[in-house]
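ok posting inputs for the 1,3-dihydroxyacetonephosphate job
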Amino acid sequence: MLNDLQKEIIQLKEEKNAIILAHNYQTWDIQEIADFMGDSLELCIKASEIDDKDLVVFCGVDFMAETAAILNPDKKILIPDTQAECPMANMLPASEVKKAKGRFNDAAVVLYVNTLAEAKAEADILCTSANAVKIVESLDEDRILFGPDMNLASYVSSFTDKEIIPIPEGGHCYVHRMFTGEIFFLREKYPDAEILVHPECNPEIQKMADHVLSTGGMVNHVKESSKDTFIIGTEVDMVTRLRRENPDKTIIPALSEAICETMKLHTLEKIKNSLLNEEFVVKVDKNIADKARGAVERMIEVSKR
Ligand code: 13P
Ligand code: SF4
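and the output
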């Protein structure tokens, strides 16, 4: 049953002709009032198809909301807490991409959507954890500058003959780096369970898993698998969504401490404030947005093929 605050938000949403988009790492109470939930790619695609709405409240981190703003220059994209930043996205400044392009001028630039708008403006095409291999394989170039996540770069390398050059050195997600040997013990404890991990986890963790999937890939896999028990190697609120949607299955977090602190900055109170006062507007400089839009749209186009 929805609480009073949730009901107020739903009413405000209707009055303002708004839509709430939420990433899979949002908490249960936010999942309940979201109009659409998804991984980064699903959220990008949804953000490209919202012509009938006046306002978008984005419950995710900065790079996700910025991408929605890049795709919708004439709409108000709101983020309930402006401190909701992804530390990985800050690891690859545009200047570093430009430097790498100077050193490897025959390479295509594929950037993870977990980058800021200025870096996106330097990319030929973006990718997410759901489509990275497909995006790289769609390009003519045999040499690819790829960043900022070195674990996703290593994952892509194992599926392509192309040369993947990770930029910057050591780009990573602190949440997915937390996973270490616990997966090995969980495998022994639950021998019939399937282990699903995110490609941002370290390569040795990916090797121990049954499947390496984006968060949207995990949603689809758990729904369709004939197995009953799943161990989930990503942020803990992924487990929340999987449990909500699969009440007859057993969903076990590989590590309960794997919390993305900035994703948790959004709360019902802040979402209400966002709708009520139409704040905080996500702003991307027009020149940067115009430059970055091509790379986002190219990714969406290749993903739909
Ligand atoms: P997904 O696109 O798989 O949801 O991943 C986004 C992310 O930031 C994972 O940490
Ligand atoms: Fe960024 Fe990691 Fe949080 Fe994903 S889980 S938003 S990559 S810090």
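notes: The two ends are 40 Å apart (CA to CA). The mean pLDDT is 97.
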